[in-house]
Amino acid sequence: MRPFVYDRATSADLAARALASSANAAPVQGRVPAEYLAGGTTLLDLMKLDVMQPARVTDITALDARHGTIAVTDGGLRLGALVKMSAAADHPEIVARYPVLAQSLTLAASAQLRNMATLGGNVLQRTRCNYFRDTSWSACNKRNPGSGCAALDGVNRQHAVLGASEACIATYPGDFAQALMALDATVDVAGAAGPRTIPFAELHRPPGSTPHVETTLAPGDLITSLSVPAGPWTRRSLYLKVRDRQSYAFALASAAVALDLDGGVVRQARIALGGVATTPWRAREAEAALAGKPVTEATAADAARIAFAGAKPREHNAYKVALGQETVARALLQAAALEG
């Protein structure tokens, strides 16, 4: 790990302005000027691997009193960005009223990591692509812009079949983000120009030709909370994750599903995919195909096929198309069987 300056934030607004100012300064020996530190479960790993090299680290854990709380009302759910994953996963009202959120958090990481990692950091976690995390590989556009992508023709079993580009096929690794996307969550941000709110669906950027730019956040922007509106679909929701082993593994394919049914007929379906795309992925055309129909094995399979109609597999990850389709179909059938 390289030497860095450590400081502690006393307010989100002051920290955002300070980091924005640092980000606009000249890089120090090519290093990223500054990063926030909360649970540290991704940042510290990547600093030890020399993948991330911030010259300054601003610890935001002292902001916990204001940004570390959970509020559930009839209108929806507000999650402070510093809430620990385990606290949200085990919260009785989230388990009962927003099961897809609780399940996505419970199925993510180990218990030890869930006790450390924060929700704000979780949605910003970086890819598990081996070519990104192993600096002995020089070709990685996400780590070293313009260097190429070793995964395109390398070992790409874990990589994305949706949303990829010729510059990057790394998969977004998280679980919680898919649940937030399916429920139309919003993100509250403190920035240099003041606070603002953006739809969660606009937080992550597809790789395109600039895969090193992963979000729409501006330099210094700090996520302060996540909000989820209540709706008739939130109780009948679930997260289904398929992985290489049952504990502590990233998704090969996953589906966050929420359904609003009227006598067994779909009024509204919500489907977000994980493990298969470069960003949290909303399958809106598949959702539209289910509207006005009952959820049967045939309609679920048809929606799943539509969800992967744009898939572009490579040598080792073609299995994700069939696996992803089966995951979506199973998730829809299981969600339809839940009590609303």
Question: What are the defining features of this structure?
Answer:
340 residues; 4-stranded antiparallel beta sheet; alpha+beta; globular; 29% helix; 5-stranded antiparallel beta sheet
Give your account of this protein's structure.
- The protein has 13 helices and twelve strands.
- With 340 residues, the chain is α+β, with helices and mostly antiparallel strands.
- The protein has a five-stranded antiparallel sheet with strand order 4-5-8-6-7. Strands 9-10-11-12 form a four-stranded antiparallel sheet, with helices on both faces. It has a three-stranded parallel sheet with strand order 1-3-2, covered by helices on one side.
- Helix 2 (43-48) links the parallel strand 2 and strand 3 (56-59).
| Helical/strand content category | alpha+beta
Order of helices and strands: EHEHEHEEHHHHHHHEEEEEEEHHH
Question: Order of strands in the sheet with the most strands?
Answer: 4-5-8-6-7
Query: Total strand count, please?
Result: 12
Q: How is the main sheet built?
A: 5 strands, antiparallel
Percent helix, as a range, is 25-40%
Radius of gyration: 20 Å
Poorly predicted spans: none
Which range does the strand content fall in? Answer: 15-25%
**Quick one: overall form?**
globular
| Assembly type | single chain
Q: Tally the helices.
A: 13
Mean pLDDT level: 95
Strands, helices and their partners?
Elements: E1 5-8, H1 12-23, E2 34-37, H2 43-48, E3 56-59, H3 64-67, E4 70-73, E5 76-80, H4 85-89, H5 92-97, H6 99-106, H7 111-116, H8 119-123, H9 130-133, H10 176-182, E6 186-191, E7 194-199, E8 222-229, E9 237-242, E10 253-262, E11 265-274, E12 281-282, H11 284-290, H12 297-307, H13 319-336
Parallel strand pairs: 1-3, 2-3
Antiparallel strand pairs: 4-5, 5-8, 6-7, 6-8, 9-10, 10-11, 11-12
